[in-house]
Amino acid sequence: METIRTIIDIVSVFVLPLLIVGFPIYGLIKKVPVYEEFVEGAKGGFTVAVTIIPYLVAILFAIGMFRASGALEFMIEGMRPAFSLFGIPPEVLPMMIIRPLTGSGSVAVVMDMIQQFGEDSILVKMVATMFGSTETTFYVIAVYFGAVNVKKTRHAVPAGLIADAVALILAVFVVRWLFG
User: Fold this and answer.
1) pLDDT tens digit string along 20-47?
2) Cα 8 to Cα 13, 117, 121, 178, distances in angstroms
3) Cβ distance 68 to 62 under 8 Å?
4) I want to staple 83 with a disulfide (CB 3.0 to 4.6 A). Which of 41, 88, 121, 146 is the partner?
């Protein structure tokens, strides 16, 4: 178990620097004009950002209303007994509910839990793992499908929610396995 943690610690130190340096070097090896492609991508990103603003405002408004109405707290209290049966700590329920909706809301949940339980607590490790292993499914669907004018999401919502549910549940068990 300690070996796995050591390997994860060593690999995590090098991942981001290797990506930041590796992609430009790979582009240069393949003779891609890296800077020009970067600028072109930034132009496209700006266009997409302007296009998605109405969808972004709509989803953020809906999330704000959901939280302000008390529906989130009501949902958490309703789910608390069932999750306790499966060994999922009730304290992580806000992350499980908020994460598919909003990234900034889930950051707020992590920060709140750090203040409440301390950064080394197993609960904070669980919600941090949930944060890193899941997606803001409804936000992504609203913004990106809206940006390309897709009206029927077909299987995207169920597939995204199933993936989120699996990651959320596995986060609890993997953190317990690694950190006791």
Assistant:
1) 999 899 999 999 998 898 899 888 888 8
2) 9, 24, 19, 11
3) no
4) 88
